[in-house]
């Protein structure tokens, strides 16, 4: 039982950032902009957020501190994604090139600034953010899994999922955003400002990417070393695995999260340790499965039709 | 008519100019960042980036070529794929499995004698080719986006390489958590470079890289196969209609690209200058730098060669930055900014068009001297 609870908690720590970042990438791609820079955005968001935690130390209560860090990460992600938006939308640059540049910039920048500020590149922080939810924590089984020693970011991730689904499918903004990803010229003809929508999509991806970076680092580490372990790329895989649909993305990120949790902690679990499959297998498995799933889904892929193509108003 | 044609810059010129534009902005951003961090040291630090690699004479120049060798090859791999319409972001993975192949043969194939290093290089290439083939086949036959498939292959390659090294006692150096040294016979020959560039680590790998550049240039521009590959890059469906086996071509393009990246990994591992496969969950940086090199070199084999040397030159200069208390990451920042702005090729083209239009409008005005004379 104890190990089951442990696995569930680990799964949450790995799944929630994937979910948040993949949802962010979904908004960008649904608006027609491929944002391969999620990795870089996560690094930047995590960096400023963790730096804030490091600098403020124990000066305020844990939850307040985390809240402010979340805001800082979100804003950082949005500012950083502006570079991608400007290149892709205004400059009609190749979106993969711009994204690659941002991915290259972020870790170098984080290391450089950390060294300038404090001499070493690892940014330490003290984890004082765990909380027990009153009443709910006393429910047997479910209580220890979800409501004891939990992070507020977990509930935030669930909230983002709900809000994203509603925004994308039940609001005027969502419909317009999706139309820009499918057929921007038709959207333009219908009076929608495609550039504005694409900016909105990219900025949302930046906000959620920055948040995801912080959400990934806080529960799984005690310092930040300009690295989010490829989670940005993994989130893009989750997005495709989930076929650009919020609920399916939830399923995909849960699957990846389980695999990550098993590979990270399988030696501590007698049942899995007894099976004798090396941890590297669990580490590779999600990527192999993604490849296989891609083979079966790409024939009728749900990818937004106009993604990755710069929108040119004058073009017919 | 002839006049207007010559006044309009050629397409290749625009590419070159946008690269120069990107380099200048990248360096300026680097300078500004240095200034913000430490105004007193910024200028000497910046000059060190530009001149640092030359302060150590022939050894320094040799080191530039040594650093350039793998990134020229990964750049060539990415650039070649670009020419055929594919984005080979899988270069890091191909590089890593190429390293694995070379290290495995380099350690285990000790009886091979004088051809040992050749076999090890070929082994690295073969592994890279296999790693490129997977996204190639998926793209050609199942229409899977090669970018996503390549990213998956990067991680599979990284974990596989670590797994194999760590679980094979013959390959694994437990103390240092990395692969063991390859056999002496597997080290690349120095090819006289140790005399020309005394003290540098330069070896025959550089010659292999130059050969690869020449071969890819010939393949792309002087053969029917290369023509077909490029045609598929421009329009897959039109090529199919024209009777080209587009599926086979897409697959072959990725196989070749993968082989070149694998070769890059093999050359680094067989250089005999202390490179090992380190068992940690990190993607090889040389592969990503290859993307930068390809973009800066406009995917042309010769451009890639020059871009590789340029980035190696910056990197080599960056090492000496530590004298000024700056960390070497500033070089990565500069390169990232260069790549970002090199994506603005369209913007540069518009600027040049505007500029040349202004010139054209001015020219007839000047020729009608009577008007100007009247004003005066």
Describe the structure.
- The complex is a heterodimer of chains A (316) and B (376).
- Chain A is an all-alpha fold and 316 residues long.
- Chain A is 72% helix and 1% strand.
- The longest helix of chain A is centred in the first third of the chain and has 29 residues.
- Chain A has a single domain, classed as ABC transporter involved in vitamin B12 uptake, BtuC (Orthogonal Bundle), CATH 1.10.3470.
- In chain A, helix 3 packs antiparallel against helix 4 and helix 11 packs antiparallel against helix 13.
- A two-stranded antiparallel sheet of chain A has the order 1-2.
- In chain B, a hairpin with a 4-residue loop joins strand 1 and strand 2.
- With 376 residues, chain B is an all-alpha fold.
- Chain B is globular.
- Chain B has a domain of 241 residues.
- Chain B has a two-stranded antiparallel ribbon.
- The two termini of chain B are 31 Å apart.
- At the A-B interface, helix 4, helix 10 and helix 13 of A face helix 6, helix 7, helix 13, helix 15 and helix 16 of B.
SSE layout and pairings?
The complex is a heterodimer of chains A (316) and B (376).
Chain A: H1 2-30, H2 38-56, H3 62-90, H4 95-118, E1 123-124, H5 142-147, H6 152-170, H7 172-182, H8 184-189, H9 194-220, E2 223-224, H10 231-241, H11 246-265, H12 270-275, H13 279-297
Antiparallel strand pairs in A: 1-2
Helix pairs in contact in A: 1-6, 1-9, 1-10, 1-11, 2-3, 2-4, 2-9, 2-10, 3-4, 3-9, 6-7, 7-9, 10-11, 10-13, 11-13
Chain B: H1 2-7, H2 11-37, H3 39-51, H4 57-83, H5 91-108, H6 116-142, H7 146-167, E1 172-173, E2 178-179, H8 193-196, H9 205-222, H10 224-234, H11 236-241, H12 246-269, H13 285-296, H14 301-319, H15 329-342, H16 345-367, H17 369-375
